[in-house]
TrEMBL record:
The keyword Ubl conjugation does not apply. This is PorZ N-terminal beta-propeller domain-containing protein. The keyword Signal applies. Residues 1-20 form the signal peptide. It comes from Epilithonimonas pallida. Gene3D superfamilies: 2.60.40.4070, YVTN repeat-like/Quinoprotein amine dehydrogenase (2.130.10.10). Residues 44-197 form the PorZ N-terminal beta-propeller domain. Keywords: Signal.
Length: 758
């Protein structure tokens, strides 16, 4: 029988200004793209944010999508110290204008009719109140104070567009570095007409900058000068990354070295960073270098950056005792190395040990093994011991794929899964059950003979023997699999690529080492699962199994009983709105489902952000997307909840953000009851007041100072929201209000006061 949940009005709670303070980022600030100076501080732009370093005090502050910026994937940046204005350019083509009065997003970047190429902002150069914005279609003049675009020159001939790699404005003339030469044009009425642009220098140029002189660079040469007379710096560089011109210097960032020249071309300084770099800047005679993986270096190679993971690429998370482990892999396919990211296949896992982020030396020094780490988990009984899966199927079996064991972030051992089996297995996900048994889900790479393989299974780890079993548990023809979940002696393994539903439920009856009493069931379309594979699963506090499919959501009650049934049926959640019944999340690909201690559910939808819904799914409490929250993108690959703090961690391929949730360690009694915001000043905040730290079921009475009842309610799930209306639906007057609370059986009580200022 289907569960019909009546809903008069589904509402999505608006993201308020107060919620902005509830977000924080766990972004990587290692890859420094641009460095600028501003009085007593240095500004460094990285992939997902900006940080400010104060050399005089050593203080570091950061700015990201969690506290002001509107996007991630920064591709260009410039700053004007005189006007205290910075402009951030993104791969999406949008801009953020950072001013003393706030941060303003600009999305109306000019695009030519029919242009369907990259919108990436390649370069930004500010000169007074004008900024030159370079992109794949050409360049635009941006009025900084009005925050609007002016003239745009589309570099196109016969419908073929020429990208501008960098451009600067000097003496009312714009110089543009392209692969087809250094172009120039005065800012006048014919500026937008590409055919009127002149070729200043022939060749392919990556960079151009101007101040006392103009300097422009190809891949391995730098030319400089004024007017039409130019000299070549007498050095053949390896792979020029950046050229910066000041009043008296030309700073050239090569592949791993920085060269500083006077404007006469005489070398003044050379610095070997010892690793790949992007840019450099001389600040008060001291050289600072922007590296690709170590933040910002000074000449003593001290690193300056906000603490964070090694890289932004994230897939799965593990939390334990204030520690975090992050896998960096990709479930759809092995990461493909590209010329712009030659080391992407070697990225390992990242570990926060409670005080700082670590990147194991095993990955830094490894020059041969290619990694696609889909999961990393600590041993709950000994968090210094960590296991991770390498899904990469490189070379002949067994190659480097397998489960790796680490001790204190040092490599110990690798376990393969071809142990006498007819198949070679690629490990996918790991999980420890309540008895500290470690399971690993695996899928077939190739059979012993040629052909396709749809076999998947799981292995049990034998700690005493320090080995996984010689053979997997029963094999199943369900295609590829996902990370397993265990609860109450049942292991659940989603099959995301199975065309016939796809959820394995295997009851090992809390006797993992013995298979004599085991039972299992594979849920398929005959069990009312949608056809397009199962990608996620979670078991809630009522022992209901929430199944996320490629085409929607299903619920199965009493899993132990269902395994024994011949044909158990899963149910959709059906809501009724405006007299019409509708299936919740119909046709949506569910990526992850997580249950908090109040039995509310966090559900991520591929391309649709994250939904926070009530225990039975009849109401959406929050809907976070890239547009209305700090999420880096709308496809969240993992969600983890720290029950002690209420923090919710969201992993995406573009980085990790954290939301301070309202629910933490919900029990039948009260926790630390907190009201926020408090006081509630209408001029500053117009949202609901939240009360957290409540019991699982709480009876609430709100009275005014005279003891008159203003509002009453029953709250489930550990928290409550009050819209500041009385029982007649009218906003209450300014004053002090008392919140009187009891748990379900009246054995525990709590009180709170709320100050309201209208």
């Amino acid at each position: 029988m289907k569960k019909i949940l009546l809903l008069i009005s589904i509402f999505i709670t608006l993201i308020s200004q107060a919620q902005a303070t509830k977000w924080s980022d766990l972004f990587s600030y290692n890859n420094v793209l641009v460095i600028r100076e501003d009085g007593d501080r240095i500004i460094a732009a990285t992939e997902n944010g900006i940080f400010y370093y104060y050399p005089g005090t050593g203080e570091i502050k950061k700015l990201s999508k969690a506290n002001g910026l509107h996007e991630v994937k920064i591709s260009a940046f410039d700053y004007n110290a005189e006007t205290q204005t910075g402009i951030v350019g993104y791969q999406s083509g949008s801009l953020d204008v950072i001013t003393p009065n706030g941060i303003f997003m600009v999305v109306d970047i000019p695009l030519a009719t029919g242009y369907n190429g990259s919108k990436n902002i390649n370069h930004i150069s500010i000169n007074g109140d004008k900024a030159i914005i370079s992109s794949g279609y050409g360049l635009s003049i941006f009025n900084v104070s009005r925050r609007e675009f002016g003239d745009t020159a589309f570099f196109a001939v016969g419908g073929v567009y020429q990208a501008v790699n960098a451009a600067v404005l000097k003496d009312n003339v714009v110089y543009a570095a392209t692969d087809a030469g250094l172009k120039y044009h005065e800012v006048n009425s014919t500026f937008p007409v590409y055919s009127s642009w002149a070729n200043f220098q022939s060749g392919a140029f990556k960079k151009v900058d101007a101040n006392a002189v103009i300097a422009f660079a190809s891949n391995n040469q730098v030319k400089y000068g004024t007017g039409t007379t130019f000299s070549t710096i007498p050095r053949t560089f390896t792979n020029i990354q950046d050229v910066k011109v000041t009043n008296n210097q030309i700073i050239v960032s090569d592949e791993s070295q920085v060269y500083v020249y006077g404007t006469n071309g005489i070398q003044q300084k050379n610095f070997n960073a010892g690793e790949l770099i992007n840019t450099a800047l001389v600040y008060n005679t001291a050289l600072f270098t922007g590296t690709k993986v170590s933040g910002m270096y000074n000449e003593q190679k001290s690193s300056f950056k906000p603490d964070g993971p090694y890289n932004n690429r994230s897939y799965k998370l593990s939390l334990l005792n204030n520690q975090i482990w992050v896998s960096s892999g990709n479930r759809d396919a092995d990461p493909i190395a590209t010329p712009s990211k030659p080391n992407e296949q070697k990225i390992g896992y990242y570990h926060y040990d409670g005080t700082k982020w670590n990147y194991p030396q095993f990955f830094v020094s490894n020059s041969t093994i290619l990694f696609n780490i889909l999961d990393v988990v600590p041993d709950p009984s000994d968090p210094t011991t960590v296991y991770f899966t390498n899904f990469f199927a490189n070379g002949p079996a067994p190659a480097e794929k397998g489960v790796y064991k680490m001790q204190n972030n040092e490599f110990v051992k690798r376990y393969n899964f071809n142990n006498g089996s007819a198949y070679y297995y690629r490990p996918v996900g790991l999980t420890f059950d309540e008895q500290n048994n470690l399971f690993c889900s695996v899928q077939c790479t190739i059979p012993a003979l040629s052909g396709n393989c749809s076999v998947s299974s799981f292995y049990l780890f034998n700690k005493a023997a320090d080995a996984f079993g010689a053979d997997p548990f029963t094999t199943f023809n369900i295609g590829g699999v996902q990370k397993p979940l265990t609860k109450d002696g049942i292991i659940y393994i989603p099959a995301p690529f199975f065309s016939d539903g796809g959820l394995l439920m295997y009851d090992y009856n809390n006797t993992a080492a013995s298979t004599s009493d085991d039972k299992f069931k594979v849920l398929k379309t005959t069990n009312n699962l949608p056809i397009n594979g199962t990608s996620s699963v979670s078991v809630d506090n009522n022992d209901d199994v929430w199944i996320g499919n490629g085409e929607g959501l299903r619920i199965l009650s009493s899993p132990k009983s269902a395994i024994l049934e011949e044909n158990p049926q899963t149910d959709p959640i059906v809501i009724e709105e405006n007299g019409l019944a509708e299936e919740l999340f119909r046709d949506a690909k569910i990526l992850q489902i997580v249950v908090d201690s109040g039995n509310q559910k966090w559900i991520s939808v591929d391309g649709g952000g994250v939904f926070y819904i009530t225990p039975n799914g009849d109401r959406t409490i929050y809907h976070f997307t890239k547009s209305n929250s700090s999420l880096p993108n709308n496809s969240v690959t993992d969600i983890k909840i720290d029950e002690k703090t209420g923090k919710v961690y969201f992993a995406t391929t573009d980085g990790i953000v954290v939301y301070q949730g309202d629910v933490s360690e919900v029990t039948s009694n009260f926790g630390n009851v907190l009201v926020y915001p408090n006081p509630v000043v209408y001029a500053q905040y117009k949202g609901n007041v939240r009360i957290r730290g409540l019991a699982q079921k709480t009876n609430i009475r709100i009275t005014d100072a005279a003891g008159n009842l203003v509002h009453s309610a029953v709250a489930n799930g550990g928290y409550f929201e009050w819209n500041l209306n009385n029982q007649r639906g009218v906003r209450v007057a300014s004053g002090i209000y008392y919140v009187l609370m009891t748990n379900e059986d009246g054995t525990d009580k709590a009180t709170a006061k709320i100050a309201v200022v209208n």
